[in-house]
Fold this protein.
Amino acid sequence: MACADSPLTHAELVARRFGARAAQYDDHAQLQRVTAARLAAFIKGHGGPPAQGLVVEIGCGTGLLAAHLAGQACRYLATDIAPEVLERCRARLGHLPQISFAVLDGEGASFPQTPAAIVSNLAAQWFHDPVAGLAHLARQTSFFAFAVPLSGSFPEWEEAFRVLGRASGLLPLPDEAALNDALTTLSGHIAHFETTRHVIRYENARAFADSFRGIGADQPRPGYRPAPIRPVLQRFARGMDATARVLYGLITKETA
Ligand SMILES: C[S@@+](CC[C@H](N)C(=O)[O-])C[C@H]1O[C@@H](n2cnc3c(N)ncnc32)[C@H](O)[C@@H]1O
C-alpha cells in the first residue's frame, strides 16, 4: 500500500481503475465475454481443465470465464487485484460450493499448494511485464491456459490517429513474437497457441472509447497527451469495426 504522499504503483493504479468501474463492467465487456467463451472452448478442445485439484484464475474480473469453468472444477480459486471487482464475481458465482475468492496481484504470484491449473482471460496485458508474467505463471502449474490481446490490435483506431500524424492513447499490448519466444522455450513444457481476430462493431468512435472507459481499462499509454479528436469522431460517425488480435495459449508440462 502506498503512503499518502507516495505515487501509486502501476498495480495500484490498475486496481483502482477497474475497481471504480466494477458495477458497470458487465454492460461494457463485449470483447471479454467473447474471449472468455472462446478460451473455455479452447481449453475444452485440449481435453478440459484437470478434473482433480485446484484451478486458480488470475484477474477473474466479474467472473465471465469462471462462469464457464468453475462448475467443472473440483476447487476453483477466483482472484483479482481489485477487491470491488472480486465482489462482483462473488455475487455472480458465490453460490457454487467449490469456488473461493482472493484479492491477489497475479504478476509474480506463487502458491503454497501447486495449482492443478491456472487460467486467465484478458488480464495479463495489465501486468507491468506481460511476457515475463505469463512465463512465470506457466512455471507454477502443469496446465496454464490464457487469452491475451496482442500488439496490432485495433488497427482501425491506430490508423485514424496515424493519418493525423499522432499516436492513439491505447496502451501498448504484448508482442506476439516475444510471447512465442518466451513461452515455447520453457524447459519441460509444451505450448499450444491459436491467434484469433475478433471484430466488434461499435456505433461510433465514442462507443469504442466507452468500451474501455466503461470497464476501467482506459488508462492511457505513458506519455499520452489528450488532444481534440474531432476528425476521429467524424471518421467513425457511421460506425466502427474494431479488430482485436487475441492469443489463446495453453502451456502444459511434458510428462516423462
Ligand atoms: C479486462 S479485465 C478482464 C477480467 C475478466 N478476466 C474478464 O474476462 O472479464 C482485466 C482484469 O484483470 C485484473 N488485473 C489487472 N492486473 C492484475 C494483476 N496484476 N493481478 C490480478 N488481476 C489483475 C483487473 O482488476 C481486471 O479485473
Notes: The mean pLDDT is 95.
